[in-house]
Design goal:
The protein is mainly alpha-helical. The chain contains six helices and no strands.
């Protein structure tokens, strides 16, 4: 039976999240045609509920804001790993889960759908991978999280 070192697992999960988030920054920060399509689709959907402008600049959930949150999450994750500061990694994992939960929701429950730009669902699959990796990092650090929570409520 293969036994995986928890530290190695954390490194792999951290690098996966950072890779997915950082490689997407070019598309978000240049407002590529794919990014423009995604966020325009979401904005049109939100407009149907009276929230036009939410997903396009200067809306609070535009590509630049989401990209910045992904950059912060990646930075916290990598800094936590490199500096051996688990609290930074936990904060990065929590932010990654929050951001990607929104992405998964919008893929599943809006006209955006699972397949975007004929990608065969790759973008959605990577989002699910980031969510699983982030939740796994939080689970692997649960003793630290529980200790912090206990100190907070005491």
């Amino acid at each position: 039976m293969i036994s995986l070192n928890p530290k190695t697992v954390q490194i792999v999960l951290t690098l996966y999240i950072a890779f997915v988030f950082l490689q997407s920054l070019f598309f978000k920060f240049t407002y590529s045609p794919e990014t423009a399509y995604i966020f325009a689709t979401l904005d049109a959907w939100a407009a149907g509920f009276g929230f036009s402008g939410l997903f396009v600049p200067p809306g609070i959930f535009n590509a630049y804001v989401i990209g910045s949150a992904e950059l912060v999450a990646s930075s916290l994750l990598v800094a936590g790993l490199v500096l051996s500061l688990p609290l930074l990694g936990i904060a990065g994992a929590a932010l990654a889960v929050a951001v990607i939960s929104g992405a998964i929701f919008f893929h599943l429950f809006t006209p955006l759908g699972v397949e975007v730009f004929d990608d065969g669902g790759l973008l959605f699959a990577m989002a699910c991978g980031v969510w699983l990796a982030g939740v796994s990092l939080l689970w692997l650090n649960r003793s630290i999280i529980i200790e912090l929570w206990a100190r907070h409520v005491a």
